């Protein structure tokens, strides 16, 4: 049941720290400072790996965007996130998939588009590494290798804790694909960060009252815009999806640098602009994007864990907990923005746990 919570979505957002802990459990050999043997690909296959595709739909696709970034940053292997539907529509051509790997991400393991992408890969000799949350699901059964995210059962239609668990799973996969001396220091720093991530994710939930407060500012908006650079942009895509899905609020995520290439024309006095800033070396550039929007009247709200971030243009800056490593910032960004979507939905009187027109698992294309 929902216990003390008014909705499953709220309960499941609060279960994110446990989802992180359980997904790490048994997947990391803490004493040796490396991911567990079971996550590794056979030696030859791993060493020869030339490229990765990461495919999923909806929230899982957003996790893939981050996953591709992590694989490139941590393992140094070229990686591309694709919508599973696009992968299945235009699978790799003859030879293109050689020494490639498809990482298929799906909470339910039953999403038709994702299953078709996996089958298309296998038909071309590309092995499939699945990340899924439901043991014994179709995807888990057909994949060549499986990493179970252990978020537990997710009842609300909107993905919340399962997204956080997917991020952890993809980080573990990136670590599993990395090897050799090069980048060893970074790998152990990421692992150290993961060791404190349960605590960090848990602390991010302390923003709940502030998010409930902000929801009152947004509840009557007709549209909100969200911006970030790089992986922060991926995180805003997911936050926007939550606002659309559970709050029926038109929310559009954009790369911050893209604002001045057209969308700035949408900004008028009082337009709500939400920004994520997870990377120190990009803060000044983001701040300049935000200043430009604020000077056109945007009401800017920023989420960041960074000290002394230069966001004078912001009406409010919400302080996120230290993620332990900059690559892990998306883990602490997610729960507060999920809470925001929840409270905006609550204020707008939507069917939060079962939004209109949607199903938990999309088993038709
Ligand atoms: C959004 C949401 C959907 C799913 C998508 C893929 O909150 O839940 O976008 O993420 O339908 O579902 P799975 O992960 O089960 O393949």
UniProtKB/TrEMBL annotation:
Keywords: Aminotransferase, Glutamine amidotransferase, Repeat, Transferase. Transmembrane segments: none annotated. Residues 35-183, 214-355 form the SIS domain. Its EC number is 2.6.1.16. It comes from the Bacteria. It is an enzyme of class 2 (transferase). GO terms for biological process: fructose 6-phosphate metabolic process; protein N-linked glycosylation; UDP-N-acetylglucosamine metabolic process. GO terms for molecular function: carbohydrate derivative binding; glutamine-fructose-6-phosphate transaminase (isomerizing) activity. It catalyses: D-fructose 6-phosphate + L-glutamine = D-glucosamine 6-phosphate + L-glutamate. This is Glutamine--fructose-6-phosphate aminotransferase [isomerizing]. The lineage of its organism: Bacteria, Bacillati, Bacillota, Limnochordia, Limnochordales. The chain holds residues 244 to 608 of 608 of the full protein.
């Amino acid at each position: 049941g929902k216990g003390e919570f008014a909705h499953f979505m709220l309960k499941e957002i609060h279960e994110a720290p446990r989802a992180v802990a359980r997904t790490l459990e048994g997947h990391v050999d803490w004493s040796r400072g490396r991911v567990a043997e079971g996550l590794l690909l056979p030696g030859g296959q791993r060493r020869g790996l030339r490229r990765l595709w990461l495919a999923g739909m909806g929230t899982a696709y957003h996790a893939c965007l981050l996953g591709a970034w992590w694989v490139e940053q941590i393992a140094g292997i070229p990686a591309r996130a694709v919508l599973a539907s696009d992968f299945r529509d235009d699978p790799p051509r003859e030879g293109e998939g050689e020494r490639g790997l498809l990482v298929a991400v799906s909470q339910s393991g039953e999403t038709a588009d994702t299953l078709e992408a996996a089958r298309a890969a296998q038909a071309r000799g590309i092995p499939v590494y699945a990340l899924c949350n439901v043991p014994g699901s179709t995807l888990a059964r057909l994949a060549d290798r499986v990493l179970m995210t252990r978020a537990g059962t997710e009842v609300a239609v909107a993905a919340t804790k399962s997204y956080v668990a997917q991020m952890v799973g993809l980080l573990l996969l990136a670590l599993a694909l990395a090897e050799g001396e090069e980048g060893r220091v970074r790998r152990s720093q990421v692992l150290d960060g993961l060791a404190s991530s349960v605590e960090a994710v848990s602390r991010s939930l302390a923003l709940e009252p502030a998010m409930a407060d902000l929801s009152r500012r947004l509840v009557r908006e007709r549209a909100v815009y969200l911006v970030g650079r790089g992986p922060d942009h991926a995180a805003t895509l997911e936050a926007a999806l939550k606002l659309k899905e559970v709050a029926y609020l038109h929310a559009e995520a954009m790369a911050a640098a893209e604002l001045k290439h057209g969308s700035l024309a949408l900004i008028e006095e009082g337009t709500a602009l939400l920004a994520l800033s997870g990377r120190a070396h990009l803060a000044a550039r983001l701040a300049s994007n935000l200043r430009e929007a604020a000077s056109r009247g945007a009401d800017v709200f920023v989420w960041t864990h960074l000290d002394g971030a230069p966001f004078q243009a912001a009406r409010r800056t919400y302080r996120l907990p230290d993620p332990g490593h900059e690559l892990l910032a998306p883990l602490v960004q997610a729960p507060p923005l999920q809470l925001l979507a929840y409270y905006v939905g609550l204020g707008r009187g939507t069917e939060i746990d079962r939004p209109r027109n949607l199903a938990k698992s999309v088993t038709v294309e």
